[in-house]
């Protein structure tokens, strides 16, 4: 298993940084978009990423904002809800793994939490070709707005059973998805899935979803025109 840091230039505002982990023979790569006020060091996303790595999937966890933007956002909180900005940064990360020598030609998935889920869905709608699957953990897919109707990638929405407000928002958003999708409720879990076994269930669900969709994408490529 190989790990290295990536730097993605984002114009005059500086750079965002990510951690790419590639298991031997990786069968796909999952790009993570963290939630509002979080970072690539999110322990919850790190836990899910470790599970995916054990399944033979590469992962990229990266900071959506530059250091200067992070400082500004801590004071104002406005950038964490700028879905267009976050989706654009996510698109840059997808382009990076599509072009990277270790991850190119492999299926790409997006894993988003909170506002990062909205960014993942907007990015998947805007440039659907590389995206084989999307998973949302306690996400705000409603913030993706009209982009929901253009998402083609199979989408899994995971919500805690005790996260009632977010569950309602996910149910409303799911009704707008035109592509294949599934809403799974983890019983007794709250927004951060801090209850015993809750986060492990998220990781299991995400691992199954990505593994299945990546296998389907790989098989479809192999069955292309000859």
- Supply the helix-strand structural class: alpha/beta
- Rg, rounded, reads 16 Å
Count of DSSP E strands? 8
CATH level 1 class label: Alpha Beta
Number of domains: 1
Inertia-based shape: globular
CATH homology superfamily:
Alpha/Beta hydrolase fold, catalytic domain
Structural overview:
- This protein is an alpha/beta fold and 226 residues long.
- The protein has a single domain, classed as 3-Layer(aba) Sandwich (Rossmann fold), CATH 3.40.50.
- Helix content is 38%, strand content 23%.
- The protein has an eight-stranded mixed β-sheet with strand order 1-2-4-3-5-6-7-8, with helices on both faces.
- β5, α4 and β6 form a beta-alpha-beta unit.
- α1 crosses α6.
- It is globular, with a radius of gyration of 16 Å.
């Amino acid at each position: 298993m190989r790990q290295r840091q990536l730097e993605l230039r984002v114009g005059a505002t500086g750079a965002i940084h990510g951690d790419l982990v590639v298991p031997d023979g990786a069968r796909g790569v999952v790009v993570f978009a963290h939630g509002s006020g979080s970072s690539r060091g999110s322990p919850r996303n790190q836990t899910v990423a470790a599970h995916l790595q054990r399944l033979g999937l590469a992962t990229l966890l990266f900071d959506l904002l530059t250091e200067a933007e992070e400082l500004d956002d801590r004071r104002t909180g406005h950038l964490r809800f700028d879905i267009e900005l976050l989706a654009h940064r996510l698109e840059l990360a997808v382009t990076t793994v599509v072009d990277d020598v270790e991850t190119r030609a492999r299926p790409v998935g997006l894993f988003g939490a909170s506002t990062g889920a909205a960014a993942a869905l907007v990015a998947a709608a805007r440039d659907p070709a590389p995206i084989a699957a999307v998973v949302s953990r306690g996400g705000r897919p409603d913030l993706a707005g009209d982009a929901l109707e253009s998402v083609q990638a199979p989408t899994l929405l995971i919500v805690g059973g005790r996260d009632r407000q977010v569950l309602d928002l996910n149910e409303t958003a799911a009704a707008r998805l035109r592509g294949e999708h599934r809403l799974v409720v983890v019983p007794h879990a709250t927004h951060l899935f801090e209850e015993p076994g809750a986060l492990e269930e998220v990781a299991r669900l995400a691992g199954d979803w990505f593994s299945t969709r990546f296998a389907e994408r790989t098989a479809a490529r192999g069955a292309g025109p000859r």
